[in-house]
User: Fold this.
Amino acid sequence: MLTQPRQQLNIPFDELTEVNSFFKRHTNIDISNIPPKYGNDILETRNLMMESLTIESLYQFFEISDIIDDTVHISSNIMLSGKMPPKILRGASHCLCFVATINGFDEQLKSIDGSMKQYFFDIWGTSFIENASLWLKERLGLELQKNSLFHSPVWNPGQHQFELINQRPIFKLLSPSDIGLELTSHLKMVPVKSVSGIMGIYDHADFEVLIPCDFCKLGKTCPASKTGCSNA
Assistant:
């Protein structure tokens, strides 16, 4: 499993069963009890996304060749850097790198009339890509389990002291332009509703588990604090 080439997956919208919970987390609106003042905007924008767009993902396992000071060497002189990567990947044999994106999101958002509909479409984009990251983690976790392998929590560049500069090596390793995902010179992903991340892969269960939320500065002010972080 760990030696397979880069894998591409289409993530089905109808398998993202937690998306309404993510939406409620961001808006405090329960889909089963939508306030009348929003009319049909919430459901219309969700349906528009599911009917007109796709979610694509790429992932690959890379052998960790060395960890030296603040760098993790993973492939052909490509390195993850900063204080957190060596901590995240200590004792791991491989690093799983992944990206996922909602193709066509930016263009579809611009075509929507009305600021309220644009707002809800934007929130649905956030909710779907967050659920997509969770879906991918769970799917890969099951495959790893079948092979008697274990994984760390997901870590996303730019969050929880995992420096944003690590977007560059992830993009070099995965070449996600194949699925319409680009990285700007300012490390912004385009389309904007995209996610990248890593997990450490282990052949034993007794590794130190570093949970991203433990390194987050938001604490109890985080919208996910009451429902649990999907990265754990």
Summary: DSSP finds six helices and ten strands in the chain. The chain has a mean pLDDT of 93. Residues 113 and 151 are 43 Å apart (CA to CA).
